[in-house]
Design goal:
alpha+beta; 3 helices; 199 residues; globular; nine-stranded mixed beta sheet; single chain; Jelly Rolls
Length: 199
């Protein structure tokens, strides 16, 4: 009595491992630019690459205490451009129709974003902390940009980039830790993950 059958244990372990692998694959697939929440003028390629102009949002809210992701810049050599990085609240196509009539940062949905002058090959790191004091920090090629930090925000926010009208500018969101080119500002900042509901 009370003995455990090891053959049952191995079978369940294999199933659990398979479920975890499938969950990781689903997690990466879900981390993509949302065509529904992004401006119609944004061109989305390969799920995480954007060009064109306007506001582009990733379809996953930042729900963990500390998250980090990168934006990799591709631009014509010798060219530089100011691009806004950070987070934004959820948007829909009605927002973009009404935005055409206004011109403020709040109207564009960029109040939780900061403009950074970038060129080809630059890496912009975005670190979001929600536990102590909600804050968005920015890094350019691994160097912190302390004066650009966004403090005190509320509610659900989504990774976002605002591209101005441009020629030849492409930005790629990077969420996989193995593809990060720079370090996050602190070890507590892990890659963005998709929150799963508890059943």
């Amino acid at each position: 009595m009370g003995a455990c059958c090891s053959c049952c244990e191995d079978a369940s372990a294999a199933v659990s491992e398979t479920e975890m692998k499938e969950q990781k694959a689903t997690n990466i697939k879900s981390l993509s630019i949302s065509r529904v929440m992004s401006a119609p003028s944004v061109d989305v390629q390969d799920d995480c690459k954007m060009s064109g102009y306007g506001l582009g949002l990733v379809g996953v809210a930042v729900e963990q205490d500390a998250a980090y992701w990168e934006a990799h810049i591709q631009h014509d050599p010798g060219m530089s451009q100011e691009v806004s990085f950070g987070v934004a609240t959820k948007k829909d196509q009605q927002f973009y129709r009404s935005m055409e009539e206004q011109d403020s940062a709040d109207a564009k949905g960029t109040s939780l974003m900061r403009s950074i002058k970038v060129k080809d090959g630059d890496v912009v790191g975005i670190a979001v902390q929600q536990s102590d004091l909600p804050m968005v920090q920015f890094l350019l090629n691994g160097e912190p940009l302390h004066d650009l930090a966004v403090n005190r925000f509320r509610g659900a926010v989504y990774p976002a980039i605002y591209l101005p009208e441009n020629d030849g500018l492409t930005v790629r969101f990077v969420f996989r830790e193995s593809e990060f080119e720079k370090l996050s500002p602190h070890a507590r900042f892990g890659p963005l993950i998709v929150a799963r509901g508890i059943i």
